[in-house]
Amino acid sequence: MKAEKSDLKALRELWEYCFYEDSKEFLDFYFGALDTDCVRVIKDGGKIVSCLHLQDIEICQGGKKYKAAYIGGVATSPSYRNRGYYKRLMTETLEELTQSGYDAAVLIPFSYDFYRKDGFEVSSYYIEVSGKSQDIGKSKVVTENKYDAYWNRTAKELEDIKKALAPEGVKFFEGDGFHIFYYFKDGDIIIPELAADTGAGYENGISFIASQEAYGFKLRTDLARAARFSEKCFDIKLCPHTMMKILNPDFVLSGVYNNNFNFLGYV
Fold first, then answer.
1. What is the pLDDT of residue 31?
2. What is the CATH number of domain 125-239?
3. What pLDDT is recorded for position 36?
């Protein structure tokens, strides 16, 4: 069932308990703008015991656009876990999305095995590159984007992410053909997102990173850029990212690569 405006306080309290690392500033922003129509809940005796949050997203492939839902904020009150509440909530939500004409549901899991039980499978990967900042220019230049599909993030969504991350100390910069989210930790620059439409724009982003005063760097980027960081001075890790459940049998992707890997400020 949909949450009601009167549930806002209880929703925030459940979020605070389950996602305790989120700051008060982020919670103030998120719940201050939250439309409870986008939240699905299970109640027991009038109390919210399990919930999830939905956001409409658009997946583009081959010139076509597909309707999908991003599922986040999945939480169940500890004293009500292992009673089937989450399973009922997810089943009802996926049925609702299917009946409403959605092509797919997407999430970023805390556990990949957990969501496989609901029919979700890994749909995208990213590479995490780290090394010394002085070496970031030592690489092959990759000039093409190669994606089977991508999430079409709107300007409003980008603005919302900027507002949500600013209290956490995450900075945003938009340059020639690229934008970047970054912050500093223990003398290193951490880049959870570098997005660019072209290879030239991506290189401009790399130059921006190199211009910052930092000893080391850690960059999360997409598979299309993997060849760029082939030098031995870089440490590269392949990491699973999103999971997807196909709701429309006619919607089949050979592989979904999200060119904005930090879609919801995942830092």
1. 94
2. 3.40.630.30
3. 96
pLDDT score, position 202: 86
CA separation, residue 167 to residues 22, 29, 100, 185 (Å): 10, 9, 36, 15
Structure tokens at 135: 């070496």
The pTM assigned to this predicted structure is 0.85
Asked if 239 and 125 touch (Cβ cutoff 8 Å), the reply is: yes
User: What does the block give as tokens for 266?
Assistant: 């995942």
Domain 5-123+242-246, CATH number (from 3.40.630.30, 3.30.470.10, 3.40.50.880, 3.40.50.720): 3.40.630.30
Strands, DSSP E only, in the chain?
39-44, 47-61, 64-76, 104-107, 121-122, 125-132, 150-151, 171-175, 178-185, 188-196, 216-222, 235-240, 243-246
Calpha distance 221→208 (Å, rounded): 15
